[in-house]
Amino acid sequence: MTFARDLREAVEDAVAPLRDTLRDQAMQLKALTAAMPPAMGSKKDAARILGISERSVSRAIERGEIQARRVGGRIVVDLASLRVVTDEDVWRAEQGPPDGRRRR
């Protein structure tokens, strides 16, 4: 049984660095995941992110400007879809497409 034991030890020695690397990467992934904002949240969360009232968020949801869905009795907002519109965004929209064609 010496051959089997030697083979097992050789495989374990070869796999050990891979196991360590995998463990390190799993810890990094866990840290990154913890640092990411949640994908879904409440209207209150959306209001805080956008700097507006919860009522304004509700009206924006009703107009279809903010993506949300009902889960059970709660409305949850797709926080990843929220993006604050800046003055530069408005200016670009007013300028039209870069090739000079008009939008329809």
Please tell me about this protein's structure.
The model has no long low-confidence stretch (mean pLDDT 84). Helix 2 (43-50) packs across helix 3. The chain has four helices and three strands. It has helices at residues 2-35, 43-50, 54-63, 87-95; strands at residues 40-41, 68-71, 74-78. Helices cover 59% and strands 11% of the residues. It has two domains: 1-36; 40-89. A three-stranded antiparallel β-sheet has the order 1-3-2.
Short description, anyone?
With 104 residues, the protein is mainly alpha-helical. Helices cover 59% and strands 11% of the residues. The protein folds into two domains: 1-36; 40-89.
Labels describing this entry:
104 residues; mainly alpha; 2 domains; 3-stranded antiparallel sheet; 4 helices; 3 strands; 59% helix; 11% strand
